[in-house]
Amino acid sequence: MTGFGEAARQNELLVATVEVRTINNRYLKISTRCSDGCPTLDPQIDGLVRQHVKRGTVQVNVRIQNPSTPDQFRINEEVLDGYRQQLQKVQQRWQGSEPLTLDALLLLPGVVDDRPPLRDTAEVWPLVQTTLTAALENLTAMRRSEGQAMAADLTANLQLIEKHLQQVQSRAPRVVEAYRQKLGDRISQWLQENRLDTQPVDLLREVSLFAERSDISEECVRLQSHIDQFRTTIQQAEVSGRRLDFLTQEMFRETNTIGSKGNDADISQQVIEIKTVIERIREMVQNIE
Questions:
Q1: For the chain, which domains are there?
Q2: What is the value of pTM for the model shown?
Q3: Side-chain half-sphere of 208: how many Cα atoms within 13 Å?
Q4: How confident is the model over 100-149, as pLDDT tens digits?
Q5: Beta strands in the chain (DSSP E)
Q6: In whole angstroms, what is the distance from residue 274 CA to residue 216 CA?
Q7: Phi, psi of 56 (to 5 degrees)
Q8: For residue 43, what are the contacts with CB-CB under 8 A and spacing of at least 6?
Q9: pLDDT of 266-281, one tens digit each?
């Protein structure tokens, strides 16, 4: 699920800013980016993120800032002296009379080093942990809002599947009767043309075999059961995306069986509609935790 969360915290030494972004992914993939001067915190960040996010691609950006102090700036005397000597030689060749000023030399690259000092994990992590936790809570709130909208959409799709399933169940008994009538008409015509006779029991046996082969009542019951389980699962506080993914696969399997056993154009049309809805559900489910 997509989401964004950010937070900023500070103590007497440091200022921490954390941004967390997530995009859809069937699995959990975490990448971390920390600012210069920040120790390697990937293991700690990874463990904390996994407590809040189960699926998705997660990008964590951590910025650590040090309040500017005189001790933060260092003049590289060797680089400064090198610039001065080279510029003096150029002045001699060009016979320049303009003096070299210190403020101009300080602006040259590498003369002043203002990089923040490296700090160890024990000093940085407590502040980062607090800030990251706040950012993850904001992320969760945003993802929860998206999840509620997704749950409503999933529920509407389940209702649509049930509507088509009811039409399949109402049509199924008439399929056998239609087959009996069609088979009886064909046999009667064939017997008349060939002046033969047959027993009603033969027709009854053939219709019974067809009814057994085309019976989809069990598949319809299982499909309805999967729908009920799906609806119950999305209403739970802790939704399992993998469980929903499994139920979606089972709904698709039962629908395929209904289509192959239905032996009826109307049922086949309803099966196509059901599979279309299940495909929409499948795409959404793969992004749910």
A1: 3-69+121-141 (3.30.230.10), 74-113 (no CATH), 145-285 (1.20.140)
A2: 0.59
A3: 6
A4: 666 666 667 766 666 655 567 788 889 999 999 999 999 988 888 888 88
A5: 3-10, 15-23, 28-34, 56-65, 74-75, 112-113
A6: 15
A7: 125, 165
A8: none
A9: 888 999 999 999 999 9
